[in-house]
Amino acid sequence: MSSHRGPDLPYSVVAGVTPFGDKWLVASAKLAGSTFAPEPPKTYDSFLEVLSERPLFSIIVVNVPIGYLDTPDMGARTCDHQARALLGRRGAAVRNAPSRAVFDGRVDADKDGLDAVTRTMMPRYREVANEMSPYRQRVVYEGHPELSFFQLQKDTPLKESKVITEGKEERRVILEDRIRGSEPYLDAASYGVPQKHLYDAFALLWTARRVFGHAAKRIPVEPEWDGDGLRMEIVY
């Protein structure tokens, strides 16, 4: 996995990115040696803006599929299936990625069996897909907040859903304990974003740090590629 910094900077910047509505929420941190310094979260109007941020992010872990099976009859991606199995009771939070046939209109979304959330997120999925290439996978990785929290909890799934109060509190306690320096930035009201998405972004930031340090795990362990040469994997 890649790790690099800008040519003249004494530090690198890594980011956890999650879509919300028609925007993108980014939790970032400066990395220099063993120093990990979270920064105030920011919102962006497009994924291209995230990619164009200066200084450039060395690693981006985004909560959007990267790499797609070609048609619905090919079933679920291995990474989606294995992530659900790993998460046990929280596995339902991992949805199957749509097929590429839906992107180009060869197959109607109804026939692809898309759930309501995936239908809503399709414009954000397309944004990322339009910018991706095998070369860009040196920087941009697919993550999932539930897997990030799983790792943060020492390979233990979360107990509660992020949409209920108990689930939000569960996530905040974990983030404050494991990501030192994040505490001032975990109040979503200060940034006008949903609390659940803010916690997701910081969990993904943790995974970005792990990717940068060559410590992240991949699902599946053996790489799989789609028809465009993109790796279909989730890191955590």
Distinctive features:
single chain; 236 residues; 6-stranded mixed sheet; 7 helices; globular
How would you describe what is shown here?
By secondary structure, the protein is α/β, with parallel strands linked by helices. It has one domain (1-223). It has seven helices and eight strands; from the N terminus they run ββββαβαααβαααββ. It has helices at residues 47-51, 78-87, 100-103, 116-131, 145-152, 165-178, 195-212, and strands spanning 12-20, 23-32, 35-38, 42-44, 59-62, 140-142, 218-219, 234-235. Helix 5 packs across helix 7 (195-212) and helix 6 (165-178) runs parallel beside helix 7. The radius of gyration is 17 Å and the shape is globular. The mean pLDDT is 92.
Summarize the structure.
The protein is 32% helix and 16% strand. By secondary structure, the chain is α/β, with parallel strands linked by helices. Strands 1, 2, 3, 4, 5 and 6 form a 6-stranded mixed β-sheet that branches.
